[in-house]
Design goal:
The chain has 262 residues and is mainly α. Helix content is 36%, strand content 8%. The protein has eight helices and nine strands. The strands form four sheets. The chain has a three-stranded mixed β-sheet with strand order 5-6-9. β5, α5 and β6 form a beta-alpha-beta unit. α6 runs parallel beside α8. This is Cell wall synthesis protein Wag31. InterPro entries: DivIVA_domain (IPR019933), DivIVA_fam (IPR007793).
Length: 262
């Protein structure tokens, strides 16, 4: 059956903690646009361009690590349903196929209008409490994968993750360790925006250099910032494997705490 506006407004997702989840405000914002599109297709008021299947497929959300976020698999599965529904209505949005009623030009500023929704308070579509609005706007998608830390990702499950290295058996981390670090790249599954990760690790490299030179006052990062960093995610484009990035950031945060508590 075709989706209805109430299918969108009543949709809920489980929330996750201590592992990657989608920023709740970002997901709600996209679903508000979908809901407004369905309202317009049913003859209701239309105040902006109709969203297309291509836009939904290209959607990218910030991720949460320490704060609650929506379960990524549940969100991705629902977005696939939305994409199929929009395509069945002629709203594919592929090049040369604008879809019925599409308007040229950028969408109006602000949140796309639709049926009124209370301001997001962290409860949103999740069954439990969640955070308030995330920091800053979403990062624009990169034009393509940068050179640097990416590596081909083997089939899922083909290579088990390495066991954690006990702290006592690990030598101190150096700037060179950060510079040489490589991550597997993902495609068609959630990955971290490569430019954002690389920029952050450049700061981490500078931090270790300052600490090793006895100049903690010049270190641009501390352990808390490493633990709380969030990156935009990719779906259709390559991205760094989140599990590998998170594991390396945990080691980095532990290393910085050694200096802070030493």
């Amino acid at each position: 059956m075709p989706l209805t506006p109430s299918d969108i407004s009543n949709k809920t997702f489980r929330t996750v903690r201590l592992r990657p989840g989608y920023n709740e405000d970002d997901v709600d914002h996209l679903l508000d646009r979908v809901e407004a599109t369905l309202v317009a297709l049913q003859g209701g008021p239309r105040t902006g361009p109709l969203i297309t299947a291509a836009e939904v497929e290209a959607a990218r959300f910030r991720t949460t690590r320490l704060n609650p976020g929506y379960n990524e698999d549940e969100v991705d599965e629902f977005l696939d349903v939305i994409v199929a529904d929009l395509r069945s209505r002629g709203l594919s949005g592929e090049p040369g196929e604008p879809g019925p009623g599409a308007r040229p030009g950028p969408p109006p500023a602000g949140r796309p209008a639709g049926p009124p929704r209370p301001q997001h308070t962290g409860q949103g579509r999740g069954p439990g409490p969640g955070p308030g609005p995330g920091p800053g706007p979403r990062t624009a998608p990169p034009s393509g994968p940068p050179p640097g830390r990416g590596a081909a990702l083997p089939p899922f499950g083909a290579v088990p993750p390495p066991p954690p290295v006990p702290r006592g058996d690990r030598p101190p981390m150096t700037p060179e360790d950060v510079r040489r670090k490589r991550f597997a790249t993902t495609r068609l599954t959630t990955g971290y925006n490569e430019d954002e990760v690389d920029t952050f690790l450049d700061r981490a490299e500078a931090t270790l250099g300052a600490l090793l030179n006895g100049r903690p006052d010049l270190a641009p990062l501390n352990a808390t910032q490493v633990e709380r960093v969030q990156f935009a995610t990719t779906r259709a484009r390559p991205g760094y494997d989140p599990a590998q990035v998170d594991a390396f950031l945990d080691l980095l945060a532990e290393e910085l705490r050694r200096y802070e508590h030493g």
